Amino acid sequence: MQIKPDEITSILKNRIEGLDTSSADLTEVGTVLSVADGICRIHGLDECMSFEMLELPHDVTGLALNLESDNVGAVLFGEWAKIVEGDTVKRTKRLLEIPVGEELLGRIVDPLGNPLDGKGEINTSASRPSEFKAPGVVQRQPVKEPMLTGLKAVDSMIPIGRGQRELIIGDRQTGKTAIAVDAIINNQDRDLRCVYVAIGQRKSTVVGLAKTLEDAGALQNTIIVMASADEAAPIKFLAPYAGCAMGEHFLYNGEAALVVYDDLSKHAVAYRQMSLLLRRPPGREAYPGDVFYLHSRLLERAVKLNDDLGGGSLTALPVIETQAGDVSAYVPTNVISITDGQIYLEPGLFNSGVRPAINVGISVSRVGGNAQITPMRRVAGRLKLELSQYRELEAFSQFGSELDPETQRTLARGERLVKTLNQAERHPMPVEDQVIQVYAATNGYLDRIVVDKVDRFLADLTDHMRGNEAELLKQVSEGDWSDDTQQAVEKAVSSFAEDFGFDLDEEGHPLDEDDEASSRSSRRDGSGDGSGDGERDQEEDRAQEPEPANA
Ligand SMILES: Nc1ncnc2c1ncn2[C@@H]1O[C@H](COP(=O)(O)OP(=O)(O)OP(=O)(O)O)[C@@H](O)[C@H]1O
Ligand SMILES: [Mg+2]
């Protein structure tokens, strides 16, 4: 058969003209040049975007970070150890996305949304980009609703509002996680969705934390994102962004969410490792130059949206671990400058029994005051000042009676305030109870009892108020601090204090207890069968109850 070139040409022409390029599946494919430490270099992806998701064999996902003239540097998520030189890499043309949604609540997941708790598959319907541009000025509104932690020391002096970023900073083992966990537990009955991101922590710690939340009934409202200590650096790097994306799902649905990043020091270390392996130039403390941007773009995503956009909020509680109290190290100063305030915890205070071990002098909340309810703002006004005065004079306390009366009074008041603000972990307190206790302390109702009885006084006061003044407490919790309410509180607290009895006179000297003591002993003798002792034992038990478990 003779081949006619004309015919073939026309057939080819027809074919080419009819080609529908949109339906054709054209992907750009590259090959792995080298792989190590969860990082690989890829040749042939000329059009690749920064932060683009890449597909590799064995369900490994890559994230393109370094776009260079002849290759792409990418970090790998999943079983990257199975990747070998020469494997093919496909572009997805999508930026990295994280599965999000209500289905994740109550679960422990890795930063890519895979379950780690053995409770079965998670079928999420939505996803969000891991890196998302923070809302602009117009889209925001000022922080105006409180995000109560249930801790007297925080809610009174360092109030946090929904949409705020409040840093929790301190050395290791100073109770940083405890504050965040209390905040989650305290909000379990409110409409606040929580995401706890554990970065570089031991798995056993995270399991313990999940158990704590479950026991408190707060787990079903919480997503735990875990990138444990043994994970490769890229997973730890991704974790906070993933947690943020999961929180943003609620934020952009008009709900309120809280994200805890525990902790960003380890995040920065993971990023440093990744950057050095990607051969980015090291800077101060060997961190890459963009370590500030690393955290600022994360924390800027915390926001209170304006009402047109649904009024949702995302509150962020980043945690930073310092070395020997050094807040002027590179990463701590960066994060301090991006957040709206910090809660500073000190090992010295922790060891002397102040729990939570907050240094009031340098802890601040720059915006949360607007979100505080009026009664709390009013009763707590003097608290910070009096505590700071006490801390200043504390060194003199060993001189005891040689001090002038004014100093002695400040010291006595300070000791009682410190006692008042002590609170065991996992016992968050409703705000109205806090108001009453702080009111009693700052108005001198504790000045005439001995320090050891303060715990019992406050616990009994709270019981008394709950039992007899429920209506008044409700008014206070709704923000009512009118003159009538104040008088009612004043009356209730002072009559309770009268009933409780005094140990000291107005000047702070022990009362002459002769009559009282003799009457008590005669009562005890009279009963004859030791029931009086039983009563006293009970009393002692009660006095010890509110102490922190491992104080
Ligand atoms: N208010 C409190 N009352 C009593 N104990 C507390 C209180 N807060 C924390 N603790 C105890 O102090 C210890 C350290 O607390 P936590 O784990 O929260 O500290 P951390 O700063 O997060 O530690 P790490 O640096 O290991 O992460 C824990 O044993 C905890 O039970
Ligand atoms: Mg911790």
What does this structure look like?
With 551 residues, this protein is of the alpha/beta class. The chain is 40% helix and 17% strand. The chain has helices at 5-18, 152-157, 176-186, 203-215, 233-251, 264-277, 291-299, 330-338, 347-351, 374-393, 405-421, 431-442, 454-468, 470-477, 483-500, 514-527, 531-544; strands at residues 29-36, 39-43, 52-55, 61-67, 72-77, 88-95, 97-100, 108-109, 126-129, 167-170, 192-199, 222-227, 256-262, 303-304, 313-321, 341-345, 364-365. Magnesium ion (MG) binds next to helix 3.
Explain the layout of strands and helices.
Elements: H1 5-18, E1 29-36, E2 39-43, E3 52-55, E4 61-67, E5 72-77, E6 88-95, E7 97-100, E8 108-109, E9 126-129, H2 152-157, E10 167-170, H3 176-186, E11 192-199, H4 203-215, E12 222-227, H5 233-251, E13 256-262, H6 264-277, H7 291-299, E14 303-304, E15 313-321, H8 330-338, E16 341-345, H9 347-351, E17 364-365, H10 374-393, H11 405-421, H12 431-442, H13 454-468, H14 470-477, H15 483-500, H16 514-527, H17 531-544
Parallel strand pairs: 8-12, 10-15, 10-16, 11-12, 11-13, 13-15
Antiparallel strand pairs: 1-2, 1-6, 2-5, 3-4, 3-6, 4-5, 7-9, 14-15, 16-17
Helix pairs in contact: 5-6, 7-8, 10-11, 10-12, 11-12, 12-13, 12-14, 13-14, 13-15
